[in-house]
Amino acid sequence: MQLEFFPSRTLSLYLARQFATRIVGVLLMLVMVLQMLDLLSESGDILAYPGNGEAQLWTYVSLRTPQLIARFLPYSVLLATILTLATLNQNSEVIAMKAAGLSAHQVLAPLLLTATVIAGISFAFNERVVTRASSTLKAWQAVDFGPIPQSASVRSNVYLRDGNNILLARTVSGSGAGTVLDDVTWYRRDDRMMVTEQVRARRGRWTAAGWALEQPVRFEVHTTTQTPLAALTVARDVPPSAVALTNLDPDGQDIFALGRTITALKAAGRHTDELEGKWWHRLSGPLAAVLMPLLGAIAAFGLARSGQLLVRAVIGMALGFAYFVIDNAALAIGNFGGYPPLVAAWAPFLLFALIGETVLIRTEE
Predict the structure, then answer these.
(1) Which of left, alpha, beta for 302 (phi over 0: left; psi -120 to 50: alpha)?
(2) Looking at the domain that runs over 164-236, which CATH code has it been given?
(3) Per-domain residue ranges of the chain
(4) First to last CA, the chain
(5) CB atoms < 10 A from the CB of 112, how many?
(6) What is the mean pLDDT of residues 255-277?
(7) Which residues contact 202 (CB under 8 A, 6 or more apart)?
(8) Residue 12's closest CA among 23, 22, 4, 24?
(9) What are the transmembrane regions (predicted)?
(10) How far apart are CA 273 and CA 280, in angstroms?
(11) Which of 130, 143, 242, 327 could make an SS bond with 126 (beta carbons 3.0 to 4.6 A apart)?
């Protein structure tokens, strides 16, 4: 029995190359198929905007593809694990390695190392590429696939309380005193919370007296009359700092920006469990790739001629998909306050790491 954790250099490179090649192949297949299906469902909305054409379709593909890669990379690692280990088992290569004195952990070591490297690449890709693509795509969708806003931090459908009144902006861009509200609607409500007046404006900008509306039009509910106004300032008690903490998009922020957002929300006395869970999942999510060789290892061991290779592959696949289901469920429960954010993000990973290790040890025995 060898004492080293890894097998020989030649064998390690052979296993890692096979594993990495299958990961890339499965990921390309999944992304291409899902991207085509997604584009078919969205192309009508994209082309509905006057002037949009093939260039805008390619722009959508360039923004959507990073999201698909980030979402389905762990699934690709799982499927590549099953394909690699099942092939090695069927060709009796696992038997040869075991006969040479390698343990199950040594057989899996090159795959685990490859998966760890992929997890690191996935983390960097998510933070540097996916967050920016998600932010830009959401801003583009907020304007119905019209001209992409210059600021990728555009937020859509922002509701703000102004005492009894409501201030609604279809999109919000900028920050601080330069915050701009577009397609603004201000609702005046009485003490019974009934709308008595509605004011619409193309844009709103912050001044010392409140939000100055451009070209406002007032509609009075009781008289059903509509009156253009020269100027109107509303919502003095809703400063840009309050707007900045409304309708945030955590998927469009990197881990450092999200951390600053959580700190600001805590200082304002806001509930942050959901955002904290997402912050921790930025770390635990990419590590799902490291779990997949462990969960799919059952496909590598056991005699192929026993007729149970397919059953073992299905069990490994079931364990992998069970992890994704429980991971999403734990995050959802954490968002409602059922779990602390740290537990919601890390408990599924630790649980299935123990399950995978237990299955591997039992298989080796």
Answers:
(1) left
(2) 2.60.450.10
(3) 9-144+274-364, 164-236
(4) 15
(5) 21
(6) 83
(7) 182, 183, 184, 214, 215
(8) 4
(9) 19-37, 68-86, 107-125, 283-302, 309-326, 338-361
(10) 11
(11) 130
